[in-house]
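Bench notes, afternoon.
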Amino acid sequence: MAEKMLLALSTFPDRETAQGISNQLVTDKFAACANILPAVESIYRWKEQIESGNEILVFFKLSEDRQSAFQEKLRLLHPCEVPEIIFVPISSALPEYLRWVVENCG
C-alpha cells in the first residue's frame, strides 16, 4: 500500500473544545480517528513569559495526503493564536489498520 499514515498531535485548553474539534475533523474526514487524553501539564514560553497550565492532548490518525487540508482546518478551528500541530510519520502499521485510516480520510 503506497499511502502513508501520520500521527498528528495537538493540545487544547479544555475537554469540550478537544471533543468538538475532534468530532468535526473525524466527521468531515480530515482524520480517521482522534484519541483524547485526559490531561497534560504544559510549561512553555509565550511572549517572553513562562506559562504553565493543564491542557488536553489529542492524537489524530490521518493519511499523509490529508496533511495540508487537516492542518488548515485544525488551524481554522483551534482557539489558540499559534496552535500546537505536530506530525509524526508512521513508518510501520498493521496493513489492515493503515487501509482503514486511508479509507476513512477524505
